[in-house]
Structures are given as C-alpha cells and as structure tokens.
Amino acid sequence: METSNPAESTAVESPYTALLTAASLIPIPHYLLGISLIGAVILYNFLEIHFFQDLFSGFRGQPVVLTFDPHSHLYRDVVSKCRTLHGRYLSTPWLSSPHLQTLFLHFFGNSPVVNYRRQIFMTSDGGTLALDWVENAEVEKQVFQANDALQRDDKNPIIIIIPGLTSESNTPYVKHLAFNMANRGWNVVVSNHRGLGGVSITSDCFYNGGWTEDVRKVIDHLHCQFPQAPLLAVGTSIGANILVKYLAEDGINTPITGAAAICSPWDLLICDRFMNRRLVQKFYNKAIAIGLKDYAHLHEAVLSRLTNWEGVKKSVSVRDFDDSATRVVGNYETVDTYYKCSSSSNSVKGVTVPLLCISALDDPLCTSEAIPWDECRLNTNVVLATTEHGGHLPFFEGLTAKSVWWVRAVGEFFDALQSSSLSHRENEVSVSSVNALDTSIDHAPYVHVLQNGMISAVGEEVAEIGILNKENVDQDKKEEDTINAEQEKVSTEIDLIQPQKIVDIIAPVKKRLNQLSRQNRKSMWLLAYVAIVTTWPVVGPALSFFLRRRFRNLFSPASVKR
User: Hey, which of 30, 62, 227, 562 has its CA 20 to 30 A from 106?
Assistant: First the structure.
C-alpha cells in the first residue's frame, strides 16, 4: 500500500498555485485590453469627460441657468428675448470634456479668417496700445494695415473686445468673437494689452488683472472720436475681470451702454488656491507661467529693470511670476494683496450698465467657487448665465466645432439690448437725474435708483443742481444784457446778479425738498405710529401720571378759592 506525502499534496492543491497556473493561461492581449479599460476609466474621470452623460440624455444638452433680480428690467426687456440664453448648451460630442475643449481651443481653435486695420494709441504715461479694427471678416488673407485714419459711421455700434491674459487679436476665441460681431454689421475693435499684439512696452508699466486705466483711456478716446456711436464691451477671462472693475469704478460716468463678461476669474485669490489643488490644475498653472515668462522675455529690456528678473526666470507658477513681476511693478505689498485688490467679485454691486456674465461650472481655470452669485442676484443691471459644461472660453458646439456658444449668446444679447429702451442709458440718466430725489427715497437710503439701476447719491448734489439750473443760465444772461443795455453802474449790476444766482441755486433745492416731504408724508405718519406704539408702555404711564398731577393741582380747593 502506497502512502502520499502530506507536504506534496498541500503544494499541489494550493489555491495560489492554481491561480497562477490559470493566470498564465490567459492570453497577453487580454491583459492589455483589461489594462486599457482601467486606464480609460481613470482618464475618463481625470479629464472630466461627460460623453456618456450626454449620450444618456439623448444629446439634448444641459439647460442654461440664469441668476438675476426678479425685478430686473434687464431681464424683462432684454434677456427674456434671447433664445440662446433660455435654451440648452450641448458641447461638441468628441470634445465632451472641459480640458479637451480648452486644449483644442489653444492648439487649433477652428477660428475664422479676420482682417484687421491697426491703430496705435499712446497713453498719457507713454505706454503704447494696439487697437485692431476688424476691416473685413470675409477676406481670406489676414493682414495688418497700419493706418490710423479710420473712417467709421458715427452712429454704428462699436464692440470693444478686451482679451484675456497673454491673449491678443490673433487668439482663436478673439477671432471667433470679432468675426461674429462684424458679420452683424457692427464696428469691432480689439484693445490689445500693453506689450501684446507685436507692440513693445514703451513705459515703466505693464498690465495686470486689476489695471483698469488702459481700458478707461481707450473707451474715453473712442467716445470722443465717435460721440454718437453706442459703445459695447466684451471682456474675456482676465479681461472680463478688468472690465467689471472698470464699470464699477466709473459707474454712471462710463460711456459704455452694455457689456459682457465671459469666464471671469472673479476672485483671484480663490482661483490661485484652486490652481494648486489638483494635478490637472497644476499643469495649467505651469502652462500659463510659461506663457507669462515668454511675455517677459519678449520685453526683457524693460522688465529686467523693473522686476525681480531672477525670480521671473525661475517662476514655475502664476503666483511665482506675480510675486516677482506683477506685485513689484504694481507696488503691492504681497501677492495676496494684489489678488484681493484686483478681484472684481466685490465690484459687481457697483455696475450701473446692462451686464451679461457667462461662466461654465466646469471651468478648469476659473473655479465656480469664486462666482459672486448673491452680488449678481442683488444688482438689477446684471444677469449671470451659467452652464454645466463649456471649459475656459471654448464652449464649442456642433459636430465640426466651428461655432462658439457664448459668442452667439453675446450677439443675441447685444441685438436685444440695442432694440430696447436700455440702450439709451445716457439720455435716461441725464433725465432721471433731474428727478433723482423724487424716485430714490422710496427704494433705499443714500441710494438713487434710476430706471436702469442703482447709483450712489453721495457727492451727486452738485451735479443735480447743475442740471436743475441749466434753464436758469440763459435767464441770467438775458438779465445781464438788460442791465447792460440800461447802462447801470457796475456795483448795482453785481448786486442784482449775485442775489439772483443764489436764489436760482436755492430755489430748486427747496422745491425738491418740498416734493420730498409731500411724497413721504405717509412714510412719516407710519414712522410716528410705530414710534408711539413701541414707546407707549413707558411713555403712557408717565404721561398719565403727569396729567393726573397737573389736573389735580388745577382743580384743587386752594386754586378754586383763589
């Protein structure tokens, strides 16, 4: 009888040995297929691809979410007529990822051919800006024509494009926008930042995320050159941040009649933290830093003198570049100080012109955490449109990815704005300023609410008096002529004119104060009623005690005898 070795029996029957034996029988191509599937799943999530989400929804896209004040005239008169903003956005199926869209826009773009005419604009500090006017959007060969003698219809709307960081008129998304706006029959000009568009830096200053002075000078120049032409502005990325800050800083004094802010970072400090959060954002951070370093090396002769040049050359992130260059030239104490001062999230409440803001919730550069939802909702002049997908600026749609969704939305918005009463904002402001005291007090203290939004009442008294006395100026001149005709003495003439001017200044103010008191009579009675009700538990007993003592002394026997 044969006996088996227990150790040998255990080794033969070991499950690990059986597993390895079975694994060795699987063909190598099957392993490669499995590894590929696992890699595809990881890549699908890493790139935030949403193809299957679109597939399961029948490629209907996701609805556009609008955030606005329910009492907004901008929504009622303009945005409600824009079909694009009330529809859905479906990205190009083979670009169903914010990263794929952003990379495709950068490397390919599918941009149309645009022909520019260049105008050189010099700033007061010696800086040079290139203003590129769209000459003919359908010309097959793109050229720059250096000619400052621009002939434009004074009454034709002018679209001012403010590009993003290190972007210029040749950037694909800028050409998409310029081409579309020009095809609508409008004059289009791209305001390139300092040192971009093939122009050298000619002063000791270059642009940053909060620098609004160049935009202000360009807009004022265009308004002086074409005083009857409506000015519309579109800012993209960091250009949107600059545009919103400018609109808030200038308030009702800006000649802009409508604007659009596309993919604004809103809060630069939050975006800086976001850019260092995940691996894919760190790739973007390094890529943008490389672009900023290329910009700096292009103007090394000037920037090496103004910045920490060794720090610039060693920069591996946007924050490093801002610490070595932007902060130094802008005289900011720290990088965080620069980010806080340059952010536009707190400026939204000061915008007084119709403003459309568009952002994608999956923006890989400007996180949705920085979007000022409440500030946009509280300002009647602002409508915020957000989409679930879109990336940073591409928003490609269609199978060929030749159309950009936000460009189409901005075109519809400006079309509706031009056909609405809000397009005549300047006339409305000047007219409603006369009756500012009549309409503002019923809405909020210290705030004048006009037909197109809110403006601060502080410091506006002089302007209102000047408007109210506009008709009295001619009367003063007539009186002076009459006095001169009668050949009265100079002293008598001064005595007559000066009191009249004082009366002319005081009379309208008294008139407005009287109207103010009449209009708020009900409010004053209501306040009096509330004061009596709230203080009666204390004042009532005291008043009753006082009256009892008073009448007791009055009708006492001693007083009756007297």
Answer: 62
